[in-house]
Amino acid sequence: MRTKLGRRLRWLVACGALVVAAAPRSAHAIPVFARVYDKPCGACHTVFPQLNPAGERFRAQGLHGLQPALTPMKLGRGLDVPGTLPLAIYLASGINVGTLDEPAQPDEIRTHVNLDFLRVLGGGELGRHLAFLFDHEMLEMEPESGEVVVNTMPYQAYVVAHAERFGWLANLKGGWTELPLATSAQIHRLPIRSYRTYDATGCALLDVDPPGGRCDDVPTLGQTQLGAELSGLHPERGVGWAVAFTNGSDNRVDDAASKDLHVRLSQQLGGHRLGWYVAYSPDVAGHGVDNESVRFGPDLEFYSRRGRVVGQFLASHESNPTGRERGLWHYGAFVEGQYRVTKDVVGLMRLEHVWTQTFDDTRQGGATQVRRRIVEVTAGWQWLPIENVRVIAEVTYARDDETVGNHATNEWTGTLRLATAFWPFAPPFVAPTQPGGRP
Q1: For 418-429, how does the pLDDT look when each residue is reduced to its tens digit (9 = 90+)?
Q2: Which one of 170, 287, 326, 363 has the minimum C-beta count within 10 Å?
């Protein structure tokens, strides 16, 4: 589903991204919801793209609940579209520097100046009960090789139907969506570094491809999935739930090994939240080799105006990761803290641990003997010189121990990045909405 461009286009895109990202732009240039509702980014975000409680409430209301500043255009009975073009360009680019210390190998310093991603965002109401949202990552650059990759499938694209009854906010989403995890795995994630807890799979931790396939094709919790999700929230009681059925092949439409089930329950306690997540897949491997998977665990969030702490623990079991009828338990946990030093500066730190039990399938005719433990620490800060521009500095240390083979690797990675969201063209003129919803 991807095609690779040549070296010349790679550097043109990277250089162009840096120039565009560095150009100062007014916060009013941010479209999508900010322009539709004439609200600043801070109305729904702590630091974009991370949502604050008001942003979470807006999402729980099916992307409804605010009075549009621009009159929606009526297409038919009960069907409206936003009164302006609800699009944005979102991109990030910068420099990555890292060292990798492996057994019997000299330390290697790697430096990459790269385009992280170039995305088009869009969304808005389609009347009182419908809304849409899409996030298409058109271009991304592989940090190791520097290759620019063109994505033909959207990362996120869904339609949501919303209803409110008996104090409940209910939503039915269909399309490519994130899984109902406690913490957004990518779309609203503040740190650059992804969560190993959500990305961990048996084949990746054992460092072996599943029978007949590739480890890269095994779905992870950190990717969007194609499917449907029904969710509900009772704001007064603080009770929330979500049930999702997905195709089990990340955001691709092919290679689906099975249909997966995801359930999450949560309880809001003032500004804080506790939850429990369960995911079940009849087969994450495919290719005629059944590998049943179940994941479950608690999560928590503590929130204040200046700080936020989120945590997640997941226990995972795969029944047959190497095709030798030998099961594997693996675990992941992280705690992440964020603190708002000033209005425009946020500091963050995350500690994460992913580990496995001792796995040995040699008695079943295999050749895999592994016990893996990965500890990772990420720290950094983010600065908003203007509302729709982020300057990001982040450093990560990771230690990967494989105790059966008695070898370990140590890795340092630092990044300095610039991210911005804007729309370069003036929107079409639409008369502003007056009280009562009429122009």
Answers
A1: 999 887 765 554
A2: 363
178: nearest Cα among 262, 117, 297, 239: 262
The predicted-structure confidence for 347-402, as pLDDT tens digits, reads as follows 999 999 999 999 999 999 999 999 999 999 999 999 999 888 999 999 999 999 99
pLDDT in tens, 2-54: 444 444 444 444 444 444 444 444 434 456 788 788 888 888 888 888 988 88
Q: Domain coordinates of the chain in residue numbers?
A: 2-422
Query: Is 2.40.160.10 the CATH number for 2-422?
Result: yes
| Count of Cβ atoms closer than 10 Å to residue 6 Cβ | 10
Integer Cα distance of 394 and 417 in angstroms: 9
Is pLDDT above 80 for 317?
yes
Residues with Cβ within 8 Å of 400's Cβ and at least 6 positions away in sequence, in order, are 372, 373, 374, 408, 409, 410, 411
Q: What are phi and psi of 186, to 5 degrees?
A: -150, -50
